[in-house]
Design goal:
Strand content: 5-15%
CATH superfamily of the largest domain: Alpha/Beta hydrolase fold, catalytic domain
Distance between the termini: 35 Å
Shape: globular
Organism: Streptomyces fragilis
Helix content: 25-40%
Number of helices: 15
CATH class of the largest domain: Alpha Beta
Protein name: Alpha/beta hydrolase
Keywords: Hydrolase, Membrane, Transmembrane, Transmembrane helix
Strand order of the largest sheet: 1-2-6-5-7-8-9-10-11
GO molecular function: hydrolase activity
Number of strands: 11
CATH architecture of the largest domain: 3-Layer(aba) Sandwich
InterPro entries: AB_hydrolase_1, AB_hydrolase_fold, Epox_hydrolase-like
Length: about 425
């Protein structure tokens, strides 16, 4: 893996070598979701993007500071999983009629269930629950009960406590069971809407595959954002296929080695922060001018993921295949959101899921990358509000405006499921 930078650079600190510094930059690529080698010119922001970001937001706090009532769930191996709950206002429940109603298209009958809808958000690789900042602000304003959690090894959650030093890597199936533990602890009763971004969407699919009864009895809606049901080994991240394939063969071993020298890698990461920032922007966003505060917010989340966690999770993605699990969502309201400029989980992966779920709403967002929920929150929030209304959540979920997006008046393009070749 080679990372090239142009322009003057400061002398390297004695504590790390040039190869280590390049390794740190390479890990930045992985952390951004581009698990492949990249040759990158130093990316600089134009004068228009360098302007100071707007700080007066119509939110209850700056990025990453929205907090709910904390709790801890425990995975099957004892790993502590941190979650937070934003509670809905207490209301007198309406009487439940002794009839059954059909949800979304009438393909599956489900009893009307008492209690408020709880929306459970699962974040992506090398992120944490704060990646849902704009959605959290919107749902909080709308009075929707929501649960946000940190996947193991990310954010405030613990590491796999029974995993030996050279033990097996994390699997997507394990993440599905982690999500079940969070649901059991934070939302043990009542209807659920499950929202997942990238790895979080894969986690939702793994939950459905392993716990079909839970989906059948309690899930009222699904949102899959910038994710994939499989085939990630074929993604080339907008780079030449030959180089990507060569790096992909070597990368698992390199990551394991780097994970054993996490202290040096982290220092290398810091020393190559300017290169990392450019890579994060390239693989997270597609807009010509992304608010630098939003970009830095994403960068900080990615930087906070330890290298050994990056190494632990990486092998799970090539092995991920949950296309068959999508059948568990038949008859439910399903929202699929894809950024048209996503280089990590390209729009074709969303189209594949739409073919498996022909009743799903597929929304392709123009000028959007992998972190579409941060780049175009007004679009994602509007579609999510519609999904929640169909799932029985309180109507009128607010959006937070276009902060972080250069397309304040952009409209999502609803796509028909693509024809099979």
């Amino acid at each position: 893996m080679v990372v090239a930078a142009t322009g003057a650079t400061a002398p390297a600190p004695r504590a790390w070598s040039r190869p280590t510094g390049l390794a740190g930059a390479a890990i930045g690529v992985l952390a951004a979701g581009a698990a492949a080698g990249v040759v990158v010119e130093r990316l600089t922001m134009g004068g228009g993007v360098r302007r100071r970001a707007r700080l007066a937001l119509e939110l209850s706090g700056p990025y990453g500071t929205l907090r709910g009532a904390p709790g801890t769930a425990h995975a099957e191996d004892g790993t502590a999983l941190h979650y937070e709950i934003d509670e809905a206002p207490v209301a007198v429940p309406e009487p439940v009629p002794p009839r059954r109603r059909r949800l979304f298209g009438g393909r599956r009958e489900q009893a009307v269930r008492p209690g408020p809808v709880t929306v459970v958000f699962s974040h992506g690789y090398c992120l944490n629950q704060d990646s849902w900042h704009f959605q959290r602000a919107a749902l909080r304003a709308a009075g929707v009960r929501a649960v946000y959690w940190d996947q193991r090894g990310h954010g405030r959650s613990g590491r796999g406590v029974t995993r030996a030093q050279q033990g097996p890597p994390v699997t997507i199936d394990q993440l599905g069971r982690d999500l079940k533990a969070v649901i059991d602890a934070a939302a043990p009763t009542g209807p659920l809407v499950l929202v997942g971004h990238s790895m979080g969407g894969m986690t939702v699919m793994a939950l459905a595959e392993q716990f079909p009864g839970l989906v059948r009895e309690r899930v009222a809606g699904i949102a899959l954002v910038g994710t994939s049901s499989g085939g990630l080994a074929d993604v080339h991240f907008g780079l030449p296929a030959v180089g990507v394939n060569a790096v992909r063969r070597l990368l698992p071993g390199v990551l394991r080695a780097l994970g054993r020298r996490a202290d040096l890698v982290e220092r290398g990461r810091q020393a190559t922060a300017d290169v990392l920032a450019g890579i994060v922007t390239r693989y997270s966003f597609a807009s010509a001018e992304v608010d630098p505060v939003v970009a830095r917010f994403a960068e900080r989340m990615i930087e906070s993921t330890p290298i050994d966690v990056v190494a632990e999770f990486y092998p799970a993605f090539d092995a991920h295949d949950k296309t068959a699990a999508l059948a568990r969502f038949h008859g439910l309201p399903v929202l699929i959101v894809a950024g048209e400029g996503d280089l990590v989980t390209p729009v074709g992966h969303s189209e594949t899921m739409a073919r498996e779920l022909p009743d799903a709403e597929l929304v392709r967002v123009p000028d959007a990358g992998h972190l579409v929920m941060l780049e175009h929150p007004e679009i994602v929030n509007a579609r999510l509000a519609d999904l929640l209304a169909r799932a029985g959540a309180p109507s009128g979920a607010a959006t937070v405006g276009s902060h972080g997006s250069t397309r304040g008046t952009a409209q999502p393009q609803r796509a028909e499921p693509p024809r099979s070749p």
